[in-house]
Design brief:
5-stranded antiparallel beta sheet, Zinc transporter permease, mainly beta
Length: about 50
């Protein structure tokens, strides 16, 4: 089983890094912050973002 089998990836941190001033709305989600992006949320996971 690969990482792609367990969770969808949207883009890498190198392509766009979410954070203060990135243009996407932050949403606190438990112990981390997701960012609203194109009708779904992104959560950082290692070197990429997972779609939620």
């Amino acid at each position: 089983m690969t990482t792609e089998d367990t969770h969808p990836q949207h883009h890498t941190v190198d392509a766009h890094e979410h954070g203060e001033g990135c243009g996407h709305e932050p949403v606190v989600h438990g112990d981390h912050v997701d960012y609203l992006h194109d009708t779904h949320a992104h959560a950082r996971h290692d070197d990429h973002y997972d779609e939620h």
